[in-house]
Amino acid sequence: MFGQCLENVRRTIPLVHNITNYVTVNDVANMILACGGSPIMSDEPEDVKDITAICDGLNINIGTLNKRSIEGMFLAGARANELGHAVLLDPVGAGASALRTGTAMKLLENITFDAIRGNISEIKTLALGSGTTKGVDADAADVVREENLNVMVSFAKSFADKRKVIVAITGAIDLVADGETCYVIRNGRAEMSKITGTGCQLSGIMTAYLAANPDNKLEAAAAAVCLMGLAGETGFGYMQKGDGNATYCRRIIDAVYNLDADTLDKGANYEIR
Amino acid sequence: MFGQCLENVRRTIPLVHNITNYVTVNDVANMILACGGSPIMSDEPEDVKDITAICDGLNINIGTLNKRSIEGMFLAGARANELGHAVLLDPVGAGASALRTGTAMKLLENITFDAIRGNISEIKTLALGSGTTKGVDADAADVVREENLNVMVSFAKSFADKRKVIVAITGAIDLVADGETCYVIRNGRAEMSKITGTGCQLSGIMTAYLAANPDNKLEAAAAAVCLMGLAGETGFGYMQKGDGNATYCRRIIDAVYNLDADTLDKGANYEIR
Amino acid sequence: MFGQCLENVRRTIPLVHNITNYVTVNDVANMILACGGSPIMSDEPEDVKDITAICDGLNINIGTLNKRSIEGMFLAGARANELGHAVLLDPVGAGASALRTGTAMKLLENITFDAIRGNISEIKTLALGSGTTKGVDADAADVVREENLNVMVSFAKSFADKRKVIVAITGAIDLVADGETCYVIRNGRAEMSKITGTGCQLSGIMTAYLAANPDNKLEAAAAAVCLMGLAGETGFGYMQKGDGNATYCRRIIDAVYNLDADTLDKGANYEIR
Asked: At what angle do helices B149-163 and B120-128 cross, to 10 degrees?
């Protein structure tokens, strides 16, 4: 059950090494603390191998990448693979530039990832090796909907199978799949898209969940997605007159901080296909 | 009317490329979302030309500049100019160091900006080509006051005319001018100066407003300034016992998120000189 | 008295140059504003000497260090020393990697610091010249407790004496010592450890306090630690149902913003050993 995944994170306090963008990094750190993990950030090539060695998981996020941090990603990824750590890729903006698409593809070729989490446009870019993404948001034409759900579930499984990875495609409906099983998750709220970095935050949480649940990573990844969506619902319940996206961001992190295993098990809204 | 400018942003969802400092970048991103735009950040020289090409506007902010990001600013600016995108300069700390002053002056010489937004010390530095700024805040001696308003309006128009640019000088009284017309704006609250990055946030909003209102950029820039000031007033109305500058920062972003066209038109407090 | 230290900050508005990590930098900036100072951030080697020259204090924090920012740290530190500015070192993650430990040690050898603020594992690493830190948090085995307090007070004084520096070791019990006197401080709450960057924020405050109180730096450093702890207590008093670590972070900054000299003097919970 998802509640057990949550408790494993709170009990083991996984240390998560993040090479991530400077836009949302503070929220990622507070979110990893909120879910029960411990964050550390480092992107300097000379520093990353030591840092990742003392960690339990590695979260690579390519937003605001630069040549120095890209070098750090490859070094940290190789070291984390040697040590058998959980490793996640968040391909922010893959499809929006040649550098982002190319870096994501090279990372996929050179590092073994446990999971990839992105929006549908980013994942489609990785599947095709090229793409055109509207910035860091998903193209409307690609969005996972009830009408195209079967096609999208097949796409997710097929991509996961080809890359031998867990793929999490997040949006209004979230898909978390390996080659055989796909969780279709309907937690969350549309207003979450008006906050910068909810995806980055989820990638941080998911890395902690993967690190703390090595024996059932697919379930752990799905639990992280349900947790984030449920926190979006719970946090929204505390919104008051005059509140907007900035306060909502705080409330979602607060909700993750306060969520317990029983509430997650009861609130998780998913089916398996 | 300003309300129409606001609605154009919400309707067209301009994508804004930001090359900005790592201090206030998260608030800039959430503020661009709050006003109805969509933010993307990228400063790596190899990445910026692709990123800016898919955007509608470019916001260049020289806080925490470095040699790599400076190179990115020139490349992105040139590309945005080729494509006819809205381009804004926020000369954070111009006058505080030779590198900042020199970079701002070189940007002005090499890139065509639609607007420049800064405090009076920063704009005076650009007008003179040199200056002494007390950090990132305006020198008290320079501040726009009722007593020196005529002189300051003339200065703003003269600078705007010489540089063929819209200039927004923000402080207790805000001036938004081209060579002929100056909006004198009296929205906002003094407490906004106790939050880091309200200027950076306004620059992000203004870029979105310029991008979504290509046919009346001066009015759009003035609308953005009124919006920010009005949000400062509205947000302050929600402050409760124990709240301080950190919560106030959230409340201003929230207020921008919730502000509608009618409220902006009614609350905008300005005269034209 | 500590209240006088607080009033000196609010009266003189010290300008603090921060070379700090991109994870917690926004909170550091807002915290420096909240306590009555003014922040500026710059890490580019070509920029830092000019920037630090116009400031009153320099806060060097080695979280997310890179080769460029390390070069900036040495240049800024040397210049601040020449000018007699207050200079503080926050050795984030010393002991967690060779680069962090080595950089902290070299900084100690080449720059004269007024104060060093870190957790016990980081300070032990500096005392030994090597160490193994669990990420950016203190190792449980090292924590300052009532049972080992005498030993820890001696360690703090001995380290301070050897390095001719004020050392602030923060945790559940905080120690602020020079070679002869140690403040043992029992303000604060355990929940503060679930927020990223409370240590970084305190380092920013402490630099402002040192800069504004040049004649009694030990007392000023202790006042800053009491202020932060007391703000943690006050801010917690405003927590409501559903609030978690993200809101708590805001409330602590808010509490610093609202704290006055009298409240600090009455709320400071310390003994001198």
From this structure: 50
Most distant CA pair in chain C, distance? 51
Residue A104 to residue A168: CA distance in whole angstroms: 15
Q: Residues, chain B, total?
A: 273
CA distance A227 to A232: 9
DSSP string, A44-89: -HHHHHHHHHT-SEEEEE-TT--HHHHHHHHHHHHHHHHHT-EEEE
Chain C nearest CA to B11, separation (Å): 31
Q: Are B120 and B95 in contact (CB under 8 A)?
A: no
Q: Give C84's DSSP letter.
A: T
Q: How far is CA B194 from CA B139, C26, C36, C195, in A?
A: 15, 13, 9, 22
- Interface size, chain A vs chain B, as Cβ–Cβ contacts under 8 Å: 106
Instruction: Specify the pairing of strand A270-272 against strand A182-185.
Output: antiparallel
Q: Global pTM?
A: 0.97
Distance CA B29, CA B61 (A): 13
Amino acid letter, C96: A
Q: DSSP of A106-162, one letter per residue?
A: HHHHHS--SEEEE-HHHHHHHHHT----BTTB--GGG---STTHHHHHHHHHHHHHH
The predicted pLDDT at position B168 comes to: 98
B26: nearest Cα among C63, C45, C246: C246
Q: How far is CA B74 from CA A88, A254, B44, B69, B108, in A?
A: 34, 40, 11, 9, 10
Residues 181 to 220 of C: which have CB under 8 A from any B CB? Answer: none
C60: which strand partners? C19, C89
- Show which subunits contact B, needing at least 3 CB pairs below 8 angstroms: A, C
Mean pLDDT of successive 10-residue segments in chain B (273 residues)? Answer: 97 98 98 98 98 98 97 98 98 97 98 98 92 67 90 98 98 97 98 98 98 98 98 98 98 98 98 97
The dihedral over CA atoms of C30, C32, C37, C43, expressed in degrees to the nearest 10, equals -100
Quote the distance between the C-alpha of residue B171 and its chain's center: 12
CB atoms within 10 A of CB C82: 11
Query: Are residues A177 and A184 in contact, defined by beta-carbon separation less than 8 angstroms?
Result: no
B115 within 8 A of B168, measured Cβ to Cβ: yes
Contacts of A101 (CB under 8 A, 6+ apart): A94, A95, A125, A129, A130, A131
8 Å CB contact of C40 and B136: yes
Shortest distance, CA B52 to any CA of chain C (angstroms):
23
Q: Tokens representing C115?
A: 């104060």
Interatomic CA distance for residues A25 and A5, integer angstroms:
24
Residue B130 touches partner C, C-beta closer than 8 Å: no
How do A38-41 and A15-19 pair as beta strands?
A: parallel
Q: DSSP state, A194?
A: G
DSSP-based three-state secondary structure for A1: coil
Q: Lay out the sheet containing B15-19: strands in order across.
A: B38-41, B15-19, B57-61, B86-90, B115-118, B166-169, B174-177, B182-185, B270-272
Interface test with A, best of B25, B198, B253 (most A CBs within 10 A): B25
Among left, alpha and beta (phi > 0; psi -120 to 50; other), residue B211 is alpha
CA atoms in the 13 A half-sphere facing the CB of A166: 29
> Which of B21, B23, B62 to mutate to probe the C interface, most C CBs <10 Å?
B23
> In whole angstroms, what is the distance from residue C266 CA to residue C56 CA?
28
Q: Which tokens is C47 given?
A: 């920029």
This model of the complex carries an ipTM of 0.96
What are the CA-CA distances from residue B270 to residues A236, B6, B71, B267 (Å)? Answer: 36, 17, 38, 9
Closest CB to C23: pick one of A26, A47, A54: A26
Predicted confidence (pLDDT) at residue C270 exceeds the cutoff of 80: yes
Q: Closest partner residue to A15 among C23, C26, C134, by Cβ?
A: C134
